TrEMBL record:
Pfam short name (any one): DHHC
Catalysed reactions, semicolon-separated: L-cysteinyl-[protein] + hexadecanoyl-CoA = S-hexadecanoyl-L-cysteinyl-[protein] + CoA
Residue span(s) of domain Palmitoyltransferase DHHC: 173-326
Protein name: S-acyltransferase
Keywords: Acyltransferase, Membrane, Transferase, Transmembrane, Transmembrane helix
């Protein structure tokens, strides 16, 4: 009887341990299920555009509102423009240097060329002065408008309240944490100017200003007038240098002998040494003309490359920044010659005579 009782006690203890182990396993499974449920719990975030609270399936640093279309970047506070005063001083120095160079080219060119031109005829002198005056006024005027005109600010719109902001009212708008206001898709914040620029192309330190929707035409007009001015300066300075250059003290070519390649090298070397030796006899007017020729040619090459690049972007219906943003993506601009006419404000009666190959949107979307 005693052995049977001890066996029954052992069976009851085993059953008890089995029940306890099953209970603990079930509790651990419930705890795991509860943990998984908290991970997939919706996250609440507020839209800066309309102020609505959105439930996101998971945490996302950037999301787009389904009502107003604004794009919100979470955990991004207000930023400060550091060294803004230094950038402003730097740009003003560039503007002063460029204005001084243009005035030097104008005044120095007139002073150095007018004796040669007026020695030909009085009519040639008056014609040269007229062309110089027109190019100077147009170039300086376009430079001043591009440098001191506001490049364009985004329009003021209402935001932050659901009853005011309608559906799709802020489509693809972002929030500028420097200016603390909405920013349209084609608006960029310039840290050098300290403001948001509408349809920004780039920040040009030589004009000390951004190139945007309001002054882009003046910037292109300045490039065109500057290219024509440098071409005219290079032509007139080279002609004047040719007229006043001292005779070259070269030896007679009869004494040069040898193969054709060797003879050509000797002639070239003689001409170089003769030019350098005769350059020492040039007057101050001649030295100014030589400097104007080389400086105008170098500036002309750089401005021509920049002008062709700008016209290429306008032809594609883009800006420089939008071209950079579209690289590596599928976005392709509409190429059309009418983009150039719309950019310069030509009427539709002129553009309708062009071949209608592409239909492109308006240049500036405000």
């Amino acid at each position: 009887m005693i052995e049977k009782y001890s066996l029954d006690s052992c069976d009851s203890v085993s059953v008890f341990y089995i029940i306890v182990s099953v209970y603990l396993a079930n509790m651990s499974d419930l705890a795991k299920e509860h943990f998984v449920a908290t991970v997939i719990e919706d996250h609440e975030a507020a839209c800066w555009g309309c102020g609505l609270h959105l439930l996101l399936p998971s945490y996302s640093p950037i999301f787009k509102c389904g009502w107003c279309g604004a794009i919100t970047t979470q955990n991004e506070g207000k930023r400060e423009n550091k060294f803004l005063w230094w950038r402003l001083v730097r740009d003003r120095c560039f503007v002063c240097v460029l204005l001084g160079f243009m005035l030097f080219v104008i005044c120095g060119g007139v002073w150095a060329v007018y004796p040669v031109v007026f020695s030909i005829s009085y009519f040639c002198g008056i014609f040269h002065l007229s062309i110089t005056l027109i190019l100077s006024i147009v170039t300086i005027s376009m430079f001043s408008l591009a440098a001191f005109r506001c490049p364009g600010t985004p329009p003021i719109i209402q935001w932050g309240s659901y009853p005011v902001v309608g559906k799709g009212y802020l489509e693809n708008y972002t929030f500028c944490h420097y200016c603390s206001k909405p920013k349209s898709p084609r608006t960029h914040h310039c840290r050098s100017c300290g403001m948001c620029i509408l349809d920004m192309d780039h920040h040009c330190p030589f004009i000390g200003n951004c190139v945007g929707a309001a002054n882009h035409q003046y910037f292109i007009a300045f490039l065109i007038s500057a290219v024509f001015s440098t071409i005219y300066v290079s032509i007139m300075s080279s002609f004047a240098v040719w007229c006043i250059w001292p005779p070259l003290p070269t030896r007679s070519l009869v004494y040069l002998s040898g193969t054709h390649s060797y003879l050509a090298w000797r002639i070239l070397k003689e001409l170089i040494f003769a030019s350098l030796s005769s350059a020492l006899l040039l007057s101050s007017r001649g030295l100014v003309l030589v400097y104007l020729f080389f400086s105008s040619v170098s500036v002309e090459i750089g401005l021509t490359v920049l002008l062709l690049q700008q016209l290429c972007y306008i032809y594609k219906g883009k800006t420089y920044l939008s071209h950079l943003n579209s690289q590596g993506g599928d976005e392709v601009g509409e190429k059309d010659c009418k983009n150039l006419l719309r950019f310069f404000g030509c009427p539709y009666s002129v553009s309708r005579y062009l071949p209608n190959v592409w239909n492109s949107p308006k240049r500036h979307n405000k």
